[in-house]
Predict the structure.
Amino acid sequence: MFEVEKMVEQLLSAEDNHQELIRFTKDNPDFSIEQGYDLQNMLIKKRLSQSHRIIGMKMGLTSLAKMQQMNVNSPIYGHLLDYMQLDPGVPLIHSELIHPKAEAEIACVLKKDLQGPDVTAAEAIRAIDYVVPAFEIIDSRYENFDFKLPDVVADNASSSRFVLGTKPIEPTEIDMRLVGMTFWINGELKASGAGAAVLGHPANSLAELANMLHERDQYLRKGDIILTGGLTAAVALEPGDTVEAKLGQNDNVCFQVV
Amino acid sequence: MVDQSTIIQLAEKLHDAEITGNGVEPLTSSYPALTAEEAYYIQLENVKRKTDSGRRITGKKIGLTSLAMQELLGVNEPDYGHLFDDMAIGNRGVVPAGKLIYPRIEGEIAFVLNKDIKGPGITTHDILQATEYVLPAIEIVDSRVKDWQIKLEDTIADNASSGLYVLGDEPISPKGLDLSQLGMVLYKNGELINTGAGAAAMNHPARCVAWLANRLSHFDISLKAGEVILSGALSKAVDGKHGDLFEIELEKLGSVSVTL
């Protein structure tokens, strides 16, 4: 029997005090992905009881490379809470986190609810109000990002902070599959990719998320912000960094690390 | 310093490897002091051999344009090679058997210029001004050095590991496009393998072409109007074998495919 209450407390305290944990699967090799999601939901309930609010969801492990690296064939999801969103111009405070890394992504904001099962990419696109370039800042609460799949699921998929671009784009205005994204730190190119890096098309990620949530009787709501998954590898951040991503010909998102 | 007769002899070795399809030991194993400049003279020796035998130069290719590749080979600048008429494969075409030793596939942006450009002092904007059109392109790189055991000088001598190339059908003006932001997606047998964007080639593909114009001026060579210039890979090269179908798609430029 796992001491789930204690594990949730450990995760919350690791985030609040920015202290690393040893992954749970080390002592509990039987800890399952399902139990990981049970823990994640308990952790989110705790945050809600602290007057926080769910404002969206994120998808993780959406690239072939990452799935192979973790030896899995499906992505994972986590919850986005209000305190995670950095407003434009608000810096990321490095000392509030453990070992933050940034990923450049395409975010979608929904104009209607999206409920599985069997949601298709086409239905997912029809549910998008607008898309924006986004940075997700991941910060695993486990030592050295050393975790197995159930650990990272329990840890809310390493969710930590995110920043959205400020110009909403009609989903029909860009080719979400082929659109290019470049990721720069202090003016130096760190990575580049195209939308297809996310499960072949960011809309596949959105549809898959709705279908995965259905398995736990959850659904996506109108107004939710969805981070569909990294188009590029995650890059470690340092205080003083100026971080920018450009999406397509005209759009960008940026933030500072202090 | 290697002498002229060694340059000719090493060029011959690489030429024979291309004909027989048997890779050779790295030149730098026998000649560890071989310089990049000397390696270019080996390349030019084989270029002369090919043009003497009636092959036509159709353009140039730029290699080692990504930071990752430059770090891998411990260099801080790209390299270049020559393209010939018999290296071009039609879009959606099939590579004739026996043409390649150890092929790898890269997605790129190809440039065609509307006037001759000669360095030094050429900038990215000089190239953008002189660009008649761009095309999506597949470059099939190959190495006449056994198992790609290359150092910088080996690949330069080996025509920058050029193999074959495939161009898209529709010329597109770069006006109104930031080429550095165009997304590129590479599929092998219908499966997504990797993605990238224009900036992967030295922050902007036209900057690679400007580098080439300046580098060629050392050899008193200019870029010619109408030549094809492959500006550099936008993602990691992917291994291919006989029967594999490769397709690349470039945002706003279209797609190009080839079967090995």
Remarks:
- The first strand of chain A starts at residue 54 and ends at 60.
- The interface with chain B takes residues 64, 175, 177-182, 189, 192-197, 200, 231, 246-249 of chain A (CB under 8 Å).
